[in-house]
Amino acid sequence: MTRNGSNTDAPHVSVGASADASDSALVDRDVEAKWRSVVGRRSFLKGVGLAGAAALPGSALFASEAVARSAALTKGDVAILRFLAAAELIESDLWQQYNELGGQNGGNPAYMAALSNLDGDMPQYISDNTDDEISHAAFLNAYLRSKGAKPVNLNEFRTLPSSKATGARDKGRLTNLQSLDVDTSWYVRYRSTKNPDLGASFPQAHIAMEMRDRALRSTFAGPFEHLPGSLFTEKPELADSTLNGSADMSVTVLIPAEEPAKLNAFAGTATLAPSSIAGIAVESAQVDATYANDVAEIRQLTVAGPRVELVGRLPWGPREPGVGRVVHIDRFGNLISDLPEAEAGPTVSVAGLTLNLVRTYEDVESGQVLAYIGSAGTVEVAVRDGHAARRLQLLRGAPVLPAPREESAGKSPYR
Q1: Nearest 5°: phi and psi at 64?
Q2: Rounded distance between C-alpha atoms, residue 296 and residue 267, angstroms
Q3: Distance (Å, rounded) from C-alpha 92 to C-alpha 293?
Q4: What is the pLDDT of residues 244-301, one digit of tens each?
Q5: Does pLDDT of 62 surpass 60?
Q6: Which pTM was predicted?
Q7: Is 11 exposed, middle or buried (CB count within 10 Å of its CB: 0-12, 13-18, 19+)?
Q8: CA distance 210 to 179
Q9: d(CA 142, CA 276)
């Protein structure tokens, strides 16, 4: 077995089954001389070069046990190495489970197909990462043995059950893919532009996930940035949104065997920093909402920005095609409905009035009622230089309907 590095100063190690004692002694002296030149107590981790060593093939790493014969390690060094070896064994356990399901030779075709939708190289990526993690643990344990230290063995703790998913092997585990608790505080730290050396503190972004009965239940608490709207909806007017801020929420997503995943329940609060929602720049926002049984209730909503300022409650929920309702009344008294333009037609009926859709307020006289398509792509009703909610005496939930064709023919913008 031979490894040649691109760096000409790196040691060239060749070990084979037929190597004799003199070859082994020569290798020992060569490695020891180079090792002593880089290893010191306080520079131990840097000298070991774990990052570089981790890139070696797994089989080459075991050679370290046979050829490394440098000075004995201190108790502190051994403790650090044993901690890292344990971490690599735990990480290997996770990746081996992913590999069984979706690796290059994974046993779950549906999971592999879903991964390939994200990235065609994902199965290969999982297999490569699995091999890497196994080799990291093997290298660290081999090095410990070469120094006369006890390696790490966690086999007695492999007591957790395997996933029941197709392709998973039935054996004891160190970790359980069905109930994960992920601490993302380091994600926040490394993406921040603030300097921890100058006193900056970083919030915890904490995610907990549980998979059971084809339902993924997750809680999230902490900051987020560049969150795409497409994560929550396929509606094109909202999918291009980009959200920044922080949240404390719980979400349940159903994952049917054949159909696409579906949001089943949601509850929580969120605070938005500068974001983009449906193409509208938002400077700040506060929202407190729940969603369950196909009905959403936004209990509190405050949005401020250069083009929008809303304060209110929105009772979003399912509706029949062609049937709209007032879902929000803004601070100007305008009535905002959930009837989309595609279903409205040229004329709508509101509070006994039949209104032709117009383009701008300039299309009607002062004091007259008008209907138009708002920035959200739905029908809105207003009074030019007036307050539509007071004028029409309407509340949230009032119907907004497409006018019958015979009724809408030849009508003026208002009646």
Answers
A1: -60, -30
A2: 9
A3: 40
A4: 888 888 888 777 766 666 778 888 888 888 888 766 788 888 888 887 776 667 777 7
A5: no
A6: 0.40
A7: middle
A8: 4
A9: 52
Provide CATH 2.40.30.90 ranges for the chain: 324-408
- For 324-408, the fitting CATH number among 3.20.20.70, 2.40.30.90, 3.40.50.620, 3.30.470.10 is 2.40.30.90
* pLDDT value of position 151: 95
CA nearest neighbour of 252 among 218, 222, 282: 218
pLDDT digits (tens, 9 = 90+) for 190-218: 555 666 666 666 555 566 667 677 777 87
Question: Does residue 138 surpass a pLDDT of 90?
Answer: yes
| Cβ 409 vs Cβ 351: under 8 Å | no
- Dihedral sign from CA coordinates of 261, 265, 268, 272: positive
- Cα separation, 388 vs 380, in Å, equals 10
CB 403 within 8 A of CB 413: no
For the sheet with 399-402, list strands across it. Answer: 353-356, 347-350, 399-402, 324-329, 335-340, 378-383, 369-373
